[in-house]
From TrEMBL:
SUPFAM superfamilies given in the database record: MFS general substrate transporter
One GO process term, biological-process aspect: putrescine transport
Domain of life: Eukaryota
Transmembrane segments: 192-216, 251-275, 287-310, 316-337, 394-413, 433-451, 472-490, 502-521, 533-556, 568-590
Keywords: Membrane, Transmembrane, Transmembrane helix, Transport
Gene3D superfamilies documented for this protein: MFS general substrate transporter like domains
Compositionally biased tracts (Basic and acidic residues): 81-91
Naturally occurring in which organism (per UniProt): Ogataea parapolymorpha (strain ATCC 26012 / BCRC 20466 / JCM 22074 / NRRL Y-7560 / DL-1) (Yeast)
Annotated stretches, region: Disordered: 1-91
Major facilitator superfamily (MFS) profile domain residues: 162-595
Membrane topology: Multi-pass membrane protein
Official protein name in the record: Polyamine transporter 1
Compositionally skewed regions (Polar residues) per UniProt: 1-16, 33-47
Keyword Glycosyltransferase in annotation: no
Amino acid sequence: MSSSYNNTESFHTAESTSEHDGSSQAEKLPGDNTMSQDSEVKSSASTLEHDPLSHDAYATQPTKYEPQALNEDNLPPDLEPNSRRESITEVSRELSRVLTNAKSIEDRIRKQEEAGVPIPPMGGGKDYPPMLPDKEPYVVAFDGENDPFHPHNWPLKTKVIQCAIIAADTFCIAFGSAIFSEGVPQIAARYHVAHVVATLGITLYVLGFATGPVIWAPLSELYGRRPVMLLSSVAFASFNFAVACSDRLESILICRFFAGCLGAAPMVVAPAGFADMFGNRTRGTVMVVYSMAVFVGPLLAPFIGGFTVANKSLGWRWTAFITGILASANVVLVVLFQKETHHPILLVQKAREIKRRTNNWGIHAPHDEFQLSVREIVENNLSRPLMMLFTEPIILFISLYNAFIYGMLYLFLTAYPFVFQEGYKMAPGVAELPYFGMVIGEIFGGCFCIYREKGYVRALEANNGKIIPETRLPTIIWGGVAFPIGILWFTWTGNYHNDIHWMVPTVSGLFTGFGLMGIFVPSMNYIIDSYLVFAASAMAANTFLRSSFGAVFPLFASFMFQNMHTNWAGLLLGLFSILLIACPILFVIYGKRLRQRSKYAFDL
């Protein structure tokens, strides 16, 4: 929309106020009076069914702006109630956008009035344009639930292509986090530093995963998934090439951090993009694709990196070159084939097309009026996730469980070479082949999660389509049992390399990989189901803690296995993983009560 439209649409003349008999409405969500308190949003969220609407008109003179909530009792009689209805998933995303202050134009206008800021003149001596009779006819919307323009109704082939592109981008950044580990010994020798100092290249990269999503998540809500993915992919490729070409260790470490931070967009955009295209009944299955990319990438990377580093004509720099080349290929895929999936942005594109072809410049989408400042990004997208992390037991303990297994994933990057390269004396590259045992286990775990989705769908249908988050928890318990079995099997058999064949600790990866997927996938879905309204903040909290553990674990892994030996270090880690099984068990019993008492949880 033009600036004149945005600056004048919220003011009314006295004549328009009396003519419409106070029917002008601020652009708000139904059931929400002020949108200023999180608890008020939560209490009204269960009744939300419609997109935000507005009936403001152009004005020639400013008057006092008094917003009034739009609800089902005061809808205009000519508005079809179901014409813009969306599923509860889309409502929760709309609320998440509101709760991040992306929609705060009313507050801005109110503050400008209080400060006495005048409306900018039209220029050229022109008066303000005449009022539109009614704003609603100019607001575009989806054409019912079966609109082919809506991502939920796209052909399956289109959805598969989009999921493949998103998963490839996610795989690439996960791959880049681990392939660097194979070059750590060469880097330590080249720059005459301790092994742990060279390991900072992994730590800073994964630490970037914790900081990047804080910015990428709100930007994807404001500008769409595709431009954010494109910008992130370009930045990721650029900084990987910078790592490969840097001569100083400081430059390498700094570029690794920015590669992780700026390349981390898929960590938050991928689940959001999948949710754009799939509803509750299929979202859990699609999340397996995302989780496979997150966990398989770091396990395949050492295999490729090991042979790369062992080749004297390549060396450690080519681990960064390979990642940069893969990232560049992803840039091409995003440019040529990725489509925008974010619903409000699709309506913006639709409005622009109609506007261009009809030459009617009043046509617009509600998202055209969204505004987001740096202060709002910092205050609402950083403070709320941290607040939820330390005040919500469900988020804290599920995220702690996720963080532990994610940290273990990166700890295995040290443990496997310690067992197979130093213990079994395997050559670089060959010593990374046992990772495929864990990859196969992850495939089995992913298939198990898909199988368990049938039970979730049956429970959903039996409950009249209402979400029961605790239905996700039994799958976590199955994964939680398998994971410590894999840890103890690997560490205790791998410790006696002179007496036990190398295939025995390799087979342990079946249980470890199964546990990784069995815990991670349903945990993500449990958090989303429990915090529909605040799902974005809940996922940000989870990503922050998870990535922090992934960054720290590689730093103490080598000291732990060298000083405690493989078996006793594994026993300690196995006991921790056994204790954490209590988290899903307790939430099976107390989860519903905790959600009912929560300020943020969504209880249907």
